[in-house]
Amino acid sequence: MPLTEGWNKTKLPYLSIYLSSKRKIDMPQTENFYIYMVLDGSIRLHTPSGIMDYETGQYSVSKIDTPASGDVLTFSKNGYFLALSIEFALNDVISVILELDGNLTDKIANSKLDNKITSSSDNNVISSVCRLFSAMNESAPLDFMGNHIKREIIFFILCGSCGAQFLQSVINIQQAGEIYKINSWIKENFRNSFTVEQLAEKQNMSVSLFHQKFKNAVGMAPLQCQKRLRLTEARRLMLDENKNVTEASFEVGYESVSQFTRDYKKIFGAKPKEDILKLQKSAKETGKFFKETGKQ
Question: Helical H runs in 68-206?
Fold first, then answer.
């Protein structure tokens, strides 16, 4: 199928292909779970927990640590970055979990699967995605084959290296689905000022109940979540767009540079300038390693 800049729909409504010739990329805009896999090139994803780089064939799973933004590190020989996204509805994931053997579910939840199994499962995710592509060109009924392979992908993600986190995220959403809607709203509006009282009112909850539910579901308090998102974006602006400390702090919603610096050090363990220099040095060393390895 011919691809155009941006997201390209396929015959399968849950599978999209992303093509970009620009450094800054768009992440999938959906409340569903999704797997994001690099097909050609490499990318840096900025998440609330930190920075993750992905090479061709590697993938991330949303709802575990959903990326706030992404930047292309390397393009293909043709000058493009290529990735795909496969969405899973909550019920898709739950139906697979319910069919797992009870012992297997416990092993996944407690991260007790053998390393060989998790490694094999991570590889099988990639193989199943390839089969999903092939199914679109076969004469067999696409809906049936597509859904069957999609269930395979979910199974292998659960048995893979991030299975425990994936399983826990499903449990959290079941217990506090309305909280995740507010969390999505915070991700879109983290630059703006708001109070916990305003968020609680949106859900018709008392402040104490909302605060407790949010922390249980997301793992941190609402304003702490906002702060982490602000600092993650500021880090990206300084690292990838060469913004200085003042520019980055104001752009993400801070009114005081000194307060920004204090918060930044608490989250990332160093002052902004020191942290960015360390990240830049690490990126250069990593790039040099891959370059030298590629020559061998």
Answer: 90-98, 102-109, 115-135, 142-159, 163-175, 177-189, 196-202
